[in-house]
Amino acid sequence: MSSSDPIRVLLVDDHVIVREGLKMVLGRDTRIRIVGEAGTAREAVSEALRTNPDVVLMDIRLPDETGVQACSDILDQCPQARVLFLTSYVDDDTVLAAILAGAHGYLVKEIGVEILAESIKRVADGENILDPAATQRVLAWVKTHGGASSDPSREALSPQEQRVVALVAEGKTNKEIAAELGLSPKTVKNYLSNTYQKLQITRRAQAAALFAKQSASRANRP
C-alpha cells in the first residue's frame, strides 16, 4: 500500500446499526475506504479473504466465536492484514487474549471519531495501538507474569538478533524484517526462535511486553 492509496478497512460487528454508523463517519475520511463488513467471526474470515483489507476493525464479542479467535484465523489466512479491536470490554483476560492472538490495536468505543480514524491510519502504517487503560493492564500483567520478558537482557543477544527484535517491536512482520535486513523469512524465524531460547521466555510473554512497552512509549511522547 502506497501513501496515496486509501486504507482498505473491513468492519466486523454483530450490530448492523454500529456498522452503519462506522461506515458513515469513517466514510468522510478520504484516506479510508470501507471494503466490506461482517456480523460474525465466520463472515469476518470469509470477507477478509475476499476483500484483502489493510485493517480489520472488529468487536471482541461476536455471536458464533470470539473476536480473538476470528483475529487469529484472519491473520493465519491473511497475514498482511492488521487487526484493530474496537470494543466496550477492557478486562484483563480479554485485552491480553486479543494481544496474544496477534491484534495490532485495542480501543474502547468511547473514543471520538477523529481518534478512531487516526488510529486506523497508524495501525495501517505499522504501529501498535493500545487504549491507555488497556496499556496499564498489560504492563501490570507483564510485571507480574512476564518474568524475564518485562526487561529482557540485550547482552544475551547477538547484534543481528537485537536488530530483529527491534523491528519486531516496531510491528513489522517476518517478511518485512527479512526485506529490511536482507535475510530470508526462514532465517528471521530462526533468529526469533534463538532469541526466545536465549532469554528463557515464552513467545506470548515477550509479545505482550513488546506491545505494551511500545504503546506506552508512544503515549508518553510530548
Topology:
Elements: E1 7-12, H1 16-26, E2 32-38, H2 41-51, E3 55-58, H3 67-77, E4 82-87, H4 92-100, E5 105-108, H5 113-124, E6 129-130, H6 132-145, H7 159-169, H8 174-181, H9 185-199, H10 203-219
Parallel strand pairs: 1-2, 1-3, 3-4, 4-5, 5-6
Helix pairs in contact: 2-3, 6-10, 7-9, 8-9
Compute the number of structural domains: 2
In percent, how helical is the residue content?
A: 40-55%
Quote the beta fraction: 5-15%
Total number of strands: 6
Q: What is the H level of CATH, i.e. the homologous superfamily of the largest domain?
A: Response regulator
Q: What structural keywords apply?
A:
single chain, 222 residues, alpha/beta, Rossmann fold, 13% strand
Describe this structure in words.
With 222 residues, this protein is of the alpha/beta class. The chain folds into two domains: 125 residues, Rossmann fold, CATH 3.40.50.2300; 79 residues, Response regulator (Rossmann fold). The protein is built from ten helices and six strands. A six-stranded parallel sheet has the order 2-1-3-4-5-6, with helices on both faces. α3 links the parallel β3 and β4. α2 runs parallel beside α3 and α8 packs across α9. The protein is globular, with a radius of gyration of 17 Å. The relative contact order is 0.10. About 3% of the residues have low confidence.
Question: How would you briefly describe this protein structure?
Answer:
This protein has 222 residues and is of the alpha/beta class. It is 54% helix and 13% strand. It has two domains: 125 residues, Rossmann fold (3-Layer(aba) Sandwich), CATH 3.40.50; 79 residues, Response regulator (Rossmann fold), CATH 3.40.50.
